[in-house]
Amino acid sequence: MSGIVRQSKFRHVFCKPVKHDNCMSDVRITEITWDSLFCAVNPKFIAIINKGAGGPFQVIPVNKVGRIDKDYPFVDAHKAPCLEVVWSPFNDNVIASCSEDTTAKVWLIPDKGLNRTLNEPVVELCGHQKRVNTLAWHPTAQNVLITAGGENKLLIWNVGTGEALLEIAGHPDQIFSVAFNYDGSQFVTTCKDKKIRIIDSHTGEVLREGQGHEGVKPQRAIFLQDGKIFTTGFTKRSERLYALRNADDLSNPLAQDELDTSNGVLFPLYDEDSGLMYLAGKGDCAIRYYEINEDAPYVHYINTYTTSEPQRAIGFMPKRGLSYNENEITRIYKVTTKGVIDILQFFVPRKSDLYQVDLYPDTRSIEPALTAEEFAEGKDASPKLMAVNPHAATQMKPKVQVAKKANILASLPTQAPQQSPQSQSSPQSGYGSSPPSSQLSTARSTAASTPQRSPRIDDDMGIVRVEKGPTSSGRQSQTSSRRGSSPENAPNPMIPKQQINLRSRAERDEGGSMTPGQRRAAAELERIKRDQARSATDDAEASPPPRYQPPTREPTSTPSASQRHSVVSNAGSPAGSEPQNMEELLLDLAKMKQLLRQHERRIRMLEDQIADVTMANAYGL
């Protein structure tokens, strides 16, 4: 079993620090000896507790680079050392701080950062008699804050009104840490009496209690997303260790491991979206990270990132502030003892440059699920979630393009007209039924009075298409009829737009039935072609063989519209007679064009034969 490699997408997570040229430096970090992170970060700002009179802390935009001036504006927060700062989960401009001056305060940071020293809080929470050790925001309810005081008392506040909603007493000794569960219905505390307690957020009742780590040094506990408890502490021999516990049996850990004998308190930094746990100690040079899942032994060691500088303060960036295009899974801001803010980026290696959906499930949104009043009424709600990459949610969906076409049925009449027995299909029509004689006469009169397009002839099929081109006046008449003209002038929808006349193969080859004028023109063309061919043959036999030259063909000029009209009017009908209507004229014109094409083919064939004979004579073949 030892040779089996554990399968996990986070097994190869690695850390890549940002170059010092792109980091901040010369930050005056506080020198007080208190077990807290001294730093808090969100996608907009990083807050660091400073060294100075009273309890100041600095708020700096996260994208700032370079040295921090000594006169850089800060938050003059408290009259005594500031012990901890925490950003609001629903507003990146709101931060809470607690101090040894027995107060907790809430501050509103301008959107572009501080341009002057800020010394007026939005809300000041005064309810403790001793120093305020730690504080935490409710994860789903807006403006709900919990604070722990040196008198071993917990207070839950409605920050919007500045009043205390609940006072929880019962801890016999100093409270080390406070952390809410996933939906904020419960929270877990660690105490100097070495016990771990799970308390109801609405009533303050201790739901479960168990024995924690044996060491007397501070221990910390947090809730995991599935309800388990993760704790860090010390043994009797002052060895640091961690433990994973079931909420129903806090005294017996599911997994436990000893790490080293360092003196710094281990702070658990948990990413609930990926299940990764980072352990960072004050004064350490290393950060260990693990993956926690349901497979025994539950807590799986991944790697340790080590630097040469010890860490004095640590900030953990929320998932909203990560670079998802580079597969960044975690970002930790580490403030060294020299005042340099190192940015540690943890990546999951992937071959593809595309957005990795499996690495970024929906994370906590900045929209609260409850108001402070609803929480005070005893309500609980799961946090609202948001996509880490909102643009990828739309890009990953398949794009379905629907072709928009006109409704064919909408243009048909509501009821088919009654057909007379004379309008039945005839064998001469070819396809379908012919329209009634009255409609044909109407169509012919309309065709005679309106300009028409030239017919299109299909040589292979022998189909003559007569298309009626609408003019602007025709379109205007149709528009006026649609807008409410009389039904007599309305166009009949049953008249076809195209009339197709089929000819037999014999008619297509021989020319079919022609008018006397067409027959005379065809005979004259045949005589001219024969004379030209005969004269060309005689000249070729009488003259000496010329030097061979490639045969050239003169480009055929396209006749103009007036020329075409004159040809149609002169050759399309017998001498001294006019065509009866426009349809017969167009049919005659089409037949004449067909005959001309046939004769042109024969002329080209004769020209090719003459060229071959000429070339053969030239080379004596």
Textual characterization of the structure:
The chain is an alpha+beta fold and 621 residues long. Helices cover 19% and strands 30% of the residues. It is built from eight helices and 35 strands. A four-stranded antiparallel β-sheet has the order 1-30-29-28, with no helix packed on it. Helix 6 packs parallel to helix 8 (582-618). Keywords: Actin-binding, Coiled coil, Repeat, WD repeat. Residues 543-553 have a biased composition (Pro residues).
Distance between the termini: 93 Å
CATH architecture of the largest domain: 7 Propeller
> What is the highest CATH level, the class of the largest domain?
Mainly Beta
Please, how many helices? 8
**CATH superfamily membership of the largest domain, which one?**
YVTN repeat-like/Quinoprotein amine dehydrogenase
Short description:
The chain has 621 residues and is an alpha+beta fold. It has eight helices and 35 strands. Strand 18 and strand 19 (206-211) form a beta hairpin.
Features:
single chain; alpha+beta; Methylamine Dehydrogenase, Chain H; 4-stranded antiparallel β-sheet; 8 helices; 35 strands; 30% strand; elongated
Which helices and strands appear, and what pairs or packs with what?
Blueprint: E1 14-17, E2 24-25, E3 39-41, E4 45-49, E5 55-61, E6 66-67, E7 75-78, E8 82-87, E9 94-99, E10 103-108, E11 123-126, E12 132-137, E13 144-149, E14 154-158, E15 163-168, E16 175-180, E17 186-191, E18 195-200, E19 206-211, E20 220-223, E21 229-234, E22 240-246, E23 249-258, E24 266-271, E25 276-281, E26 286-292, E27 299-306, E28 311-316, E29 328-336, E30 341-347, E31 363-364, H1 372-376, E32 385-386, H2 390-395, H3 437-449, E33 456-458, E34 463-467, H4 472-482, E35 498-502, H5 505-510, H6 516-542, H7 561-571, H8 582-618
Parallel strand pairs: 2-6
Antiparallel strand pairs: 1-30, 3-4, 4-5, 5-7, 8-9, 9-10, 10-11, 12-13, 13-14, 14-15, 16-17, 17-18, 18-19, 20-21, 21-22, 22-23, 24-25, 25-26, 26-27, 28-29, 29-30, 31-32, 33-34, 34-35
Helix pairs in contact: 6-8
Pfam families: DUF1899 (PF08953), WD40 (PF00400), WD40_4 (PF16300)
WD repeats: 75-107, 125-167, 168-209
Keywords: Actin-binding, Coiled coil, Repeat, WD repeat
